[in-house]
Amino acid sequence: MRILLIEDDAVLGAAVRDQIAGDGHSVDWVQRLDAADSAVAGVPYDLVLLDLMLPDGRGLPFLKRLRARGEATPVIILTALDQVSDRIEGLNAGADDYLVKPFDLAELSARIGSVARRYGGNPNPLITHGALQIDLAARSIHRDGVPVQLTAREWALLEAFLARPGQLLSKAQLEDKLYTFDAEVESNTIEVHISRLRKKLGAAVIETERGLGYRLGSA
What we know:
This protein is α/β, with parallel strands linked by helices. Helix content is about 40%, strand content about 25%.
């Protein structure tokens, strides 16, 4: 997924960024609300991680602006505000989850996965696709019962297709899912990842529409 992290604490922000990048997600990290406004105006994010106390204001008005514009992007609040009234206010403003600092980074990864599955229309982390048995929560995959090892980028690419079965995804859309806005992406990077997925999971797992993009195949 392409994730926007809005967090002004340098140590925590770096730890969260590294954790979710290690899960295979693309992370853009900003430390101010004005930068967050600019980011969401230019990139279709799959999820936002939002601190509530930023140097240039509070996070809740930012969240309310998103929802007022009709943006359904899932938002997980990350904050030290731990009163029940704070949680209620955040959830009523449109947040999908609320995580109090300090938190375990593995729990954050699990909550990101849970919210993403709910938005994808299938909260069940277990998926059977042809010869593939996929556990999104455990990040494990078997082909005909045999475990298959995927890199973080390969996982991210596969999840992008699983979230949109039957939908054609362009090369640019896939690059947006996998890479941050300041990353240098070689012209054949997506093709290389797709080739590796086909070798590991079967030649039919991803179909190509020449000149248009790729879609999930029959595996």
